[in-house]
Amino acid sequence: MELSHRSKDFAKFMDKTEAVVRDLLCVPDNYRVLFMQGGGSGQFAAVPLNLISRTGKADYIVTGSWSSKAAKEAAKYGKVNYVVAKTERYTGVPDRSSWTFDPDASYVYYCANETIEGVEFHDVPEVPKGVPLVCDMSSNYFSKPVDVSKYGLIYGGAQKNIGCAGVTLVIIREDLLGKPQPICPTILDYTIMSKNKSLYNTPPSFAIHVLGEVLAWVKKEGGMAEMERRSVQKSKMIYTIIDNSSGFYSNNIQPRSRSYMNVVFRVGEGGGNEELEKKFLEKAAHQGLLSLKGHRSVGGIRASLYNAITIDDTQRLANFMKNFREENKI
Ligand code: PLP
Question: Is this complex scored with an ipTM above 0.95?
């Protein structure tokens, strides 16, 4: 951790980490891999600061809290068109026939997995030809194969599926470099970061090290196809219990948009009972089932089934849910 980031050894370490990213996602040669800081929220600003200057306009497909925040941040730097109708209650990906794109948009933005609501795109959205597609993959990065060539830019904080907080992994197509707004802060400037191989300033070396170790493990376990197989299996185990609980557990997300990563549900007949949810969390914690509380903005329960959660862990949660229902149903 104390190696100079200007040393040859450090450069080798960076190259090795980039190589495993490229290998797992089959990143084409005309894309650059950047290790940045500032988290997903930093990217909410970096994306418009680097990409909106062509027309000053961008399309945002808002399907949950994180894409909503990204759209609000982008509106500071340009004109944002909401592709799908605005709503306070996110329950899935609205039908493609209702989407309206701005013909002048510099890019189309979406969030692949809305962590708070548990809404996931299971396909790459179809967008107007030639307009770069930008995607926030913070909470489903490296959970399934990705066709990078369909995107202009992909980013995600490492702290969910690929390591610990501190590094944000950006993959950008080369032709999108070189057009930042003049006000773009240097450390959010993809062109400068790329020219300096992510070493413009001191990088978060420990977080990059952990990311490299996690991805080496992912590769050893079978890579993207295996992570996807496990994610589908794990989420199905929990959704099946919800769907077979005669309303004791409920999930209000349209089935085709249900997240494989974040299974969000309420406990208690009639759409949720806060007292019962408190009891659920307490009892679960006694059994070592932790971090199940839903985001404060939506309440309820959220089971985050990231790559580090095993099938056995998920089975323990499933068993707990079955028993809890038996003990508490009306
Ligand atoms: N995007 C998504 C999908 C997230 O889940 C989060 C955080 O949970 C963010 C962005 C914000 O990331 P950060 O906390 O790294 O700024």
Answer: yes
Tokens of 197: 């191989």
CA-closest residue to ligand 1 atom 11: 40
Q: Where are the alpha helices (DSSP H) in 39-183?
A: 39-51, 65-74
Q: How many CA atoms lie within 13 A of 208 on its CB side?
A: 25
Determine the average pLDDT of the residues in 162-181: 97
- pLDDT tens for 192-223 read 999 999 999 999 999 999 999 999 999 999 99
Q: Mutation test of ligand 1: which of 109, 139, 211 has the most ligand atoms closer than 8 Å to its C-beta?
A: 139
Q: How many other CB atoms are found less than 10 A from the CB of residue 220?
A: 9
Render pLDDT for 299-329 as a digit per residue (tens, 0 to 9). 999 999 999 999 999 999 999 999 999 999 8
**Distance from Cα 103 to the centre of ligand 1, integer Å:** 29
- Active-site positions read 66, 136, 160
How large is the angle between the packed helices 39-51 and 65-74, nearest 10 degrees? 40
